[in-house]
Amino acid sequence: MNRGGGKMLRPGGNQPFFDDSSDDSDSDEEEEVQDAPPSRPTTNLSSDEDDDDSDDDDDLGASNKRSRSFDDDRKTKKSRPSFFDEEAEDADDDEDEEEAYGTHHDPHDRVKRHYTEDDIRRENMDEEALAIINRQNRRRNQMASFNPDDDIEDVARQIEERHRLASRRVDRTVLDDADIANGNQSLAAVTQQSLLPSVSDPNLWMFGCANGKEQELVYQIMNKCIAFARQGKPLGITSAVAAQSKGRIYIESYSEPAVREAIQGVRGLMAYSMRMVPLNDMTTVMTVTAKKKPVKKNEWVRMARGHYKGDLALVRAVRESGIKCIIQCVPRLDLTLSELPPEEAKIRRRTVKPPQKFFNPQDVAAMGKQNLARQRFPGMNDLYCDFFEGNYYSDGYLLKEVTVGTMVKPCGEEEPPTLDELQRFRNRNKNEGRYEDDEENEGSKMAKSLLEELSDLQGKTSLGEKSTNNGGLVIGDTIEVIEGDLVGMRGKLMSIDGSTVKVKPIGTDNLGTTGEIEFLVSQVRKDIPVGAHVKVIEGRYSNETGVVVAVEKLEGENDATAVILTDMTHKEVSVRISQLQESAEVASGQDKLAGYELHDLVVLSGGGSANEVGVIVRVGREEFTVINNHGIVREVRPEELRGKRNSSSGRAVALDVQGNQIRVGDTVSVAEGPHKGKSATIKRMNRAQLFLYSQTRSENAGIFVVRSRSCVLSGSKVQRGGSDGPSGFSTPQSQQRGANGPNRGRRDDGLIGKTVRIQAGNWKGYLGAVADATPTHVQVELHSRLKKVMVLRERVAVVGDKFGATEDPDRSNMGSMIAPTTPFLGGATPMHGGATPMHGGATPMHGQLSGGFTPSHSSGGDDVWQPGGVIDIAEEENNNSTWAPGTSPTQENDFGSSAAPESTWNPTSSDQGSTWTPSTNDVVPKMETTATSAPKKEEPDYGIQGATALGADDGQQAPVWFMERVCIQFNGKSAVIKDVDNKSAVVEFDDKTTQNITASECTMVPPGEHDTVLVTGGADVGLEGELVCIDGTDAILRDPNGEFKIVDLVHLAKIVGES
Amino acid sequence: MFYVKHLEHEIVLEPIHFGPKLKSTLVRLLKEEVEGLALATYGYVVQVIDVPETDIKFGVIEYDTGDVVCTVKYVALLLRPFINEVLDATVSQCNQLGFFAFVGPLRIFVSKHSMPEDLLNGFDGEKDAWISDDKEIVITAGCGVRLKIKGRTVEQGNITAIGTIKDNYLGLIDDGSGDVGDDF
Fold first, then answer.
1. Residue B89's pLDDT is what?
2. CB-side exposure of A723: number of CA atoms within 13 Å?
3. Quick one: B51 and B75 in the same domain?
4. Close Cβ partners of A12 (under 8 Å, ≥ 6 residues apart)
5. Closest C-alpha to A888, from A856, A927, A848, A931
6. Is residue B50 part of a domain?
């Protein structure tokens, strides 16, 4: 029979049958049918029956369109058995199920002469058309012979019988085709070849149309064809076909104008899309795709939808000739759903996939569910089931009637049931004894059949021992004797010789000398104890390694199954012992695909965000499972990956919650979030996202994603960041926050996020939040302006946390807040010389702040400032004898938040004439108590630099530009600073007179274009150059090397060129 | 099993350490290097108990680095898991495959297959606990369990073991609440 696909109408009577070209294994029958001469309509009719079921449905569908009314036709429709209705529906939603609409009235096909349009017209004369109609009519009459009450099988049998009859007749009438019917294959191939379309055959034109309208349009064309033929002006087309392709119909004709004529007035057909199908492609149009494999009873299927997607199920019965089937699977019931509020339940139902668990009526009853009942499963009379919430449960399994194709798919070769799944499926039966139901027989029967299935399947799939005739024995293996006199004896395999092995017994020392004993291979079995480290040498999990956590022996099985916890993915897999080998090797199983490996940091494409990255947590055969930077796991194909970022991850540095630097390989513990409390190693990192790896986690190969700021660096590394000095000197983290020694290149972020007040410079007095910090500078995001400015670190005073300033307004102007600095003491390149002392000078400031303000904090500290980390650091400073544990929480707060009137610092700082050292000593107890002590190491600095710095009026700070060679204005006169002595300087006026002035008395001359300028701030601090031009707030200057730099104008000071 | 053993260790001393406190430096370095380490044949070095000063012999100067290689004999407390040994361990983490328990530095994994039948399907993902069918036994992080070592894996500097609680007298002995359990 011809399943050439789609509907095929042949309005003309005598044309060559195009569809013959579709080579089909069944085409022999087709040949017979077509070869039946037209003079024997009965043959035609009977031979058509094969196709009748779908033909007639199509007739039914189209009959609305048909204006011609045939009484018989109506009758037939009325008495049509319901079976066909369903067939029709099925045919409608499933295009590839459709069968060719061969009306098969063409009598003889083998004549391959060129047909002219005249021929066609002649052939389409009225009487021909009428004959067709009559024939169709008659065929429908015969339809009535179907008894609607008949079983489907009966109908099928009838059809078969008739068909056999037809074949015989055809055999007699057609000689050459009889060979095909007889199965003469070589001849059949040749005949098939000759049926391919050639240039002398009509051409095929393709039209686009709306999806689903294909059949309808073909009917329309057919009707038009018949109508025109009746009017005496037949259309010049030979056929119209709706093949399998959706949204396409094909019209066959010798001439293009005829096609155009035929489609004229047919609505829904896109005439502009007309295209001729090349000769070579014509067969493709009619090629049939393989029919869906039907499911059979007791076959394994996989669920295709919903929570059950991917689950294994067993077909218990097939219904409605294969459209539906009753499957048995392990239920995924969520009993908690009904207790939740409806909205929550709705979300949960959608998102949470309940675990597989056998249905236990006792459990359900215990939960107080009322709607539990015992019912017969509809259609399976002998089967009593638990009926609960619309579903039937038998023996704990879910029984359900589902549609084949949409709800379940047969377990193909690609995805055979795994041993795991089968055992999970079977487990219930093992425990059958616990449920004293009247179904014990049924259960054990099922178990038996399942077991058979199991062994059967294991033979079929690679799980079985198909390639090993010796049970995977290797010399050196430990074996156990399983047959013969010495059952249970264990020994070491010494040699293998064909089907015999020599074994040296183990643990027989007290039995005297025992040599090697010979056994048949079948008498021994490899013995792998629990806890052994093994490698899978073949099968589905080939090359995985892991530790045996359990060995199970199924009854009726020779070979035991080991449950292995894999090293790499932390999964449990079941493998037969014969496929295992004890090995110390640690492999990751399949870990490479398309150049990517497990745990690679990869860039993902698509999915909205541009820079989505992820870490590969599983490498499949064709795809990866990736956990992305948001912690979402998904599967991607290798093509979707845009390269690795392992090396950039290896270089990356992030900061933990305490500001410690963390890198790949560090161990951190998670301080907050869903993974709180877990400790893991950083495997990869991307920006602030850490991909942590924990050996003890099984999901996602142990990888999970945490923000770096949610982690705390653990272990001894915590301290190392800041102190590069000699061992024994460890800088408390808190100390670094404010007073960042110049000798430390380390980036310190203690200030980031804090509210600071800028103490000097253009932005003096402004409040802002620190956006970024370097050892020398901080970037302050001003509260009042939409601007970020770079300020020298010591020019800011911390006044609050990230939520705003907490300083006391009265205190904020206290001059003593500002560290006395000796910025510009000497030095030919003032900025460079100045920078170092400035830092040295800064340290006292912090000491002062922290020392002085402790009382206010102990009374009213704010919690934001109390991360636990610094406490840890302080604890490691335990050699500090005066350290009082009680004060530890306040340490953090000491940094410069609010000022308190009561300040121990004041007396010492006002002690201006003295050097710093004694005053430091005064402060020492206090400082140490608060564990923010200025390290002793720096004290010498104070002695030298701090002391001189303090000599001047520390209420004022010289502006940053206050240094030598800078042009200033003083009382309206311009001058150049000659010699700076802290806050005061000797200036030289234009008339060469000199005067000693203080910084506050003069103003800087704003630099203009072509002036020589000095950069006093920003990234290029210290640079001298010529100001080329000014562009808004930016200035472009050329440095002595001739390179151009863009600098903030505010950072520039006009200087006189070096003479 | 914990036991005490005399062991030897080679220490490479940098010239910076040559000085008056040489011996105490040696002891410090020894402890830093070996404590917490798993020696393949002896197990974890839990603590260096004693380093007899008399056993610290002169070292040999390495020709090309100037470092001194000293062999130090010491007495260490070791922890070595033996197959079929029964240990009391603290559960540290549960997952759907079983739970991890620690005996000092030794990590032991107990698979669900190595649990009694009534615990086999008792993993509760919400509580991160293994709960028996009758809800009597709850194994969760912090609990004490008595387990039997079934296998061990020695890696570089690390030993892990596989355990079972599927046997007589094995299983939960302390529910982690601090109360003394009445199981025994």
1. 92
2. 19
3. yes
4. A106, A120, A123, A124, A128, A225, A234, A237, A238, A239
5. A931
6. yes
Nearest to A532 among B93, B107, B151 (CB): B151
* Site from B14, B113, B165 to mutate, A interface, most A CB atoms within 10 angstroms: B113
pLDDT of A381: 65
A357 contacts B121? CB cut-off 8 A:
yes
Please list, in sequence order, all residues whose beta carbon lies within 8 angstroms of the beta carbon of residue A795, skipping any fewer than 6 positions away: A758, A759, A760, A761, A960
What pLDDT, on a 0 to 100 scale, did the predictor assign at position B76? 92
Residue in chain A nearest B121 by alpha carbon: A357
CB pairs under 8 A between A and B: 55
Please list the ranges in chain A whose pLDDT falls under 50: 1-107, 109-112, 168-184, 429-444, 458-468, 719-747, 807-956, 1059
Which residue range forms the structural domain that includes residue B63?
A: 2-79
Task: Please give the structure tokens belonging to residue B96.
Answer: 């759907």
- Rounded to a whole number of angstroms, the distance from the CA of A305 to the nearest CA of chain B is 24
* Burial (Cβ within 10 Å: 0-12, 13-18, ≥19) of residue A146: buried
Of A357, A531, A696, the CB nearest to B151: A531
Residue B126 lies in a domain: yes
Q: Which among B95, B107, B153 is the nearest to A698, CB-wise?
A: B95
**Of B6-15, B54-63, B70-79, which gets the smallest average pLDDT?**
B54-63
Is residue B129 domain-resident? yes
Q: Which chain B residue is nearest to residue A563, measuring alpha carbons?
A: B113
B36 and B113 in a single domain? The answer is no
- B170 and B91 inside one domain: yes
Angle A126-143/A71-78 helices, nearest 10 degrees? 30
Q: Which helix (H) or strand (E) holds A873?
A: helix A869-876
Q: Which residues of A touch B (CB under 8 A)?
A: 357, 529-533, 547-550, 552, 563, 565, 570-572, 586, 696-699
What does the pLDDT read at residue A414? 58
Q: What is the ipTM of this complex?
A: 0.78
Residues B164 and B146 reside in one and the same domain: yes
Choose the mutation target among B31, B97, B140 for the interface with A, i.e. most A CBs under 10 Å: B97
Domain count, chain B: 2
CATH classification at residue B117: 2.40.50.140
Which of the residue ranges A393-407, A486-500, B84-98, B165-179 has the most confident prediction, judged by mean pLDDT? B84-98
B79, B97, B124 - which closes a domain: B79
Specify the CATH number for the domain of residue B15: 3.30.1490.120
Whether residue B101 sits in one domain with residue B168: yes
Q: Where a domain ends, among B79, B100, B125?
A: B79
pLDDT of A292 reads 60
pLDDT digits (tens, 9 = 90+) for B121-159: 888 888 888 888 888 888 888 889 999 998 888 877 788
CB contact under 8 A, A531 and B162: yes
Under DSSP, is residue B42 helix (H, G, I), strand (E, B) or coil?
Answer: coil
